[in-house]
Amino acid sequence: MRRGKWRERDSLRRGVYVLPNLITSGSLFAGFHSIASTYNGNFETAAIAIVVGAILDGLDGRVARMTRTTTQFGVEYDSLADLVSFGVAPAFLVYGWALSAFGRWGWLAAFLYLICGALRLARFNVQVNTVEKGKFNGLPIPAAAVFVASMILLFHYLGGSGSFKHFAVLLTIYVLAFLMVSTVKFYSFKDLEPLRRRPFNTLVVFVFLALLLAAEPQVMTFTFASVYILSGPTGEVVNAIRRRRRKHTESEKPVHGNDAN
Q1: Which DSSP string corresponds to 51-104?
Q2: In this structure, are residues 98 and 163 in contact, taking their beta carbons and an 8 Å threshold?
Q3: How far apart are CA 26 and CA 158, in angstroms?
Q4: What is residue 255's three-state secondary structure?
């Protein structure tokens, strides 16, 4: 333990990498800006800030890996920034926008979202080297935050303004909190290498999706977030059906042995 602490102190004395940590600071600023906007009643601006923070959060780790500047300091700093930008900010936002009208059940839902997000981050840091490669164990907190923000952006896009009260929002927050601390597997985009050669059709698909996002950003952000969240439970159901079919097929196979006659 002493050697590990000495190495961390020695690494900090040599300095930190500016670029990835600067991007993480931008994500943290977006979370703070979202909280301030919610306090002032600007829910749409607060939602946009969360989406911007999620984009920056996706960039900092990728930039660190591409430039080989990944450090333990950066990992810890990123987790702290995530808790603010995708835990505190969306919980405060959705409470001010919709949950405050439900009284005790409303602030309980907002706090449950926050604490489940914190537990999700802590579990990720502990299991980062043991989970299946290319998969997340539980819903990533940035994805949950983007879904919350996309709901509000879609609400304003459809002509809504101010706060909103609907039981579906309350139920959604409870579901998001449960998914974050669940063992449902979600796809990780960390293995998606943009500099690697891909089939031509892949480029066409990405261009088409980019055009849709540019044409209807509020609708497509909500759609992408919804599809990603549903992909986890759907994949678990499909895998369960496949396992059951495999067991059923194996049980029906005849057992070959020596005949007693």
Answers
A1: HHHHHHHHHHHHHHHHTT---HHHHHHHHHHHHIIIIIHHHHHHHHHTGGGGTH
A2: yes
A3: 29
A4: coil
DSSP 3-state assignment of 185? strand
Sign of CA dihedral 250, 251, 253, 258: positive
Nearest Cα neighbor of 181 from 141, 240, 222 is 141
CA-based nearest residue to 85, from 111, 113, 116, 51: 51
pLDDT bin (cut points 50, 70, 90) of residue 239 is confident
- Domains along the chain? 11-250 (1.20.120.1760)
Euclidean distance between CA atoms 37 and 42, whole angstroms? 5
The candidate with the shortest Cα–Cα distance to 62, out of 214, 160, 222, 192, is 192
Instruction: Please state, as a whole number, how many other Cβ atoms lie within 10 Å of the Cβ of residue 100.
Output: 14
> Do the Cβ atoms of 73 and 91 come closer than 8 Å?
no
C-alpha distances (whole Å) from 52 to each of 45, 108, 145, 216, 258 are 11, 27, 11, 16, 68
Q: How confident is the model at residue 69 (pLDDT cuts 50, 70, 90)?
A: confident
| Whether 117 contacts 144, CB under 8 Å | yes
pLDDT at residue number 96: 94
